[in-house]
């Protein structure tokens, strides 16, 4: 069972939800921090990291002896990472997305691939939680391949929680693809609502079942609730705007430890999400025609 | 000789576009016939990345041996150089016509390297 914690807007509390949810779930539970440009679940879970592997991306290498300057590789590349001006192709590795298309279209077999390092996948444990995080190299622009490398560690048994990057672009798609359910974390502000709408559109496009968590709510906030009611989106949890939560966060502490009465709320969130996945799977078994995800 | 100027508009009175890769358009000027044509840079403007590389490819396919622009980044510089195109930067603030006159008078300097950083690495 794979649960993505996503949002449109950044800073709404994805990591807070992901870390606290993981602590409330029974073993076997694994947390994957896929916000590889700034992984910060470790601040709250304080895992003992004992494994580290470099992640790479395949980039083209030209064998100039075999190349006949036909330019097919440059015409195929949608990322302008390889270009041939009736000369031997120029390769720009930092622009390459590693799709391997140039390799396939080359009629003379002049292109092979070399691995370019882009980041690190670290593994460890925190209490009963198995922990994995990706850490993108500074200055690196390609995060989806590292996100996919982190996701190769999805657990076969139990629950895997994926802390996603913010936004709705390629890194988010890479993170939520193949998940069973998405928890969209938002805040009751105009920006929060605006970006939530983008996230909702994205999930619908991906045909991924989802619900909403509203963070830092006060009795005055109505706009996100109203939006969810109109759109028939379940509000899974509201976290009150409570100074104790903010203090715990700023000290790198888990809410479920610092504010014990919220532990019950998180446990309800766990069971709510799990039962939604189970009922969704019962309605359309994974081997059926309408499995979630996108090709 | 065909020379290309990055341009903000489609006449010789237009200002030189300081950007090369994301230039609004190009003016392709023939120094022999003194005629020009406007060349679209749409492919590069629509590119998510590598606009300078794509624009250099456009110039190469036009058979232009010279580029006059404002600034040029490292990837564009490398691609233009591979295509054998001479690069003149620092023409921003001039009109296209002024840039052409300065070029003809030998008052523009060829760039020995890119003069701005890349957007990626």
Please provide a written account of the structure.
The complex is a heterodimer of chains A (295) and B (121). With 295 residues, chain A is an alpha/beta fold. Chain A has two domains: 2-55 and 120-283, P-loop containing nucleotide triphosphate hydrolases (Rossmann fold), CATH 3.40.50; 64-109, 2-Layer Sandwich (Alpha-Beta Plaits), CATH 3.30.70. Chain A has eleven helices and eleven strands. Chain B is of the alpha/beta class and 121 residues long. Helix content of chain B is 28%, strand content 19%. Chain B contains four helices and five strands. Chain B has a five-stranded mixed sheet, sandwiched between helices. The longest helix of chain B is centred in the middle third of the chain and has 12 residues, at 51-62. Chain B starts with a strand and ends in a 17-residue tail after the last helix. Chain A binds chain B through residues 74, 79-81, 83, 85-87, 90, 92, 94-95, 139-141, and chain B through 47-51, 53-54, 56-57, 60, 75, 78-79, 82-83, 118, 120-121.
Oligomer: heterodimer
In CATH, the architecture of chain B is 2-Layer Sandwich
Summed over residues and divided by their number, the pLDDT of chain B gives a mean of: 93
Order of helices and strands of chain B: EEEHHEHEH
Q: Which fold name fills CATH's third level, the topology of the largest domain in chain A?
A: Rossmann fold
Biggest interface between protein chains, with counts per chain? A-B, 15 and 18 residues
Into which percentage range does the β-strand content of chain A fall?
25-35%
Count of extended strands of chain A: 11
CATH class of the largest domain in chain A equals Alpha Beta
N to C succession of SSEs of chain A: EHEHEHEEHEEHEHEHEHEHHH
- Show unreliable segments of chain A: 287-295
